[in-house]
Protein: Sugar ABC transporter substrate-binding protein
Amino acid sequence: MTMRTTKTLTATASALALALGLAACGSSGPADPAADSSSPTMWALTGSSEDIFRSSVERWNEENPDASINQEFFANDAYKTKVRTAIGAGEGPSFIYGWGGGVLKSYVDAGHVEELDDFLAENPEIKDRYIPSVFENGVIDGTTYALPNNNMQPVVLYYNKQVFEQIGAEPPETWDELMALVPKFNDAGIAPFALAGQSKWPNLMWLSYLVDRIGGPEVFQAILDGEEDAWSDPAVIEALTKIQDLVDAGGFVNGFSSIAADAGADSALLYTDRAAMMVHGGWVYQNLKNDAPEFVESGEVGFVPFPAVEGGAGDPANVVGNPANMWSLSSTASDEQKEVAFEYLKDGLFSEEYTQAMIDSGAVPAVNGIEDQLAASDDKDFVEFVYGLAQDAPSFQLSWDQALSPAQGDAMLANLDQIFIGKITPEQFAENMNATLGK
Structure:
């Protein structure tokens, strides 16, 4: 096998040590020294889009010294806890980074976020810039409360072409083909799948895709609608059973429940040839470009849609993931902070430089009219693949932990963790989750 660079292996060792030795924790960048208490605050995530957000705000602050923005960054897992607590206490940031769905609705119901319809009516070109299906994730009961701020992020199946060549295999197109690969990779001493189970939310990508492939998007819609015993749908039970079959077959890397996504150790397993595949979001490609550029540049990373399930009612062209992340504005921000925030949303967000930087990072912005830029990208294969998935999908389902209410989402991740480690049965999962319906 080709040896990776020393830089990559060193980074990998650090990532693995962090993942296996520490629980995920938050981190933040230094506050902008030019900002003061009257400046709007912006909280965002470390990782794939961090440099783009940071550069955008730094450019904005240089060009608008009297309307600066104070920006901080946090690791994913830590952020989700911190931001809910802060918003509930009336101490949240002016710009709230989110995913739309049930979490956004909980903020709306509590009066924590600002309505944006008047702002959009005064600036109709802003709404027109977005792909409509993505824009709709910021609309609650007919009113807009959030705007997309980055890229479309369907969940895909990444694979290491080199290890596939080693065993003479092709990426799976069906669930049966996926299961048949498991013993082949195990026999070769390679984990079939990397998984950051400690963070819990990566487990969800498996459940949401399998339920959709088996039963179609209507199954989760019934859960969202709070229909009685919706979690007991046969598609949910079958999906959970298939997950436990995959675990029992040795489908995931040993110790997966101790690996944290924030440390990047799941991706590291893929690009150091220790795992053959990984089911993860579109943002991972950006992380791979940063952490293992030679893995990307050499063309060793492959990507395909999540496999179909034979006999399933769901369309194999459906995707799950995040149509995009969103900016909401805090209702507790001062009038001065809101004024600056509105100006940034109008002139700073998805400026020409912002959009091109996102494409250069290997991401697909959630905006219209970028086909020519994608075709000219160094990452043409991936960005056009993602753009096609999102544009052609009959259903693009938001990540369930964000689509559901916070209480339901937390309960779902906790119970799904118990499924993956074999502590409860699919029927027990359904019973536990049915008790959360309507909460």
In short: The domain at 41-152+324-368 is CATH 3.40.190.10 (D-Maltodextrin-Binding Protein; domain 2). The radius of gyration is 21 Å. Residues 1-36 have pLDDT under 50 and may be disordered.
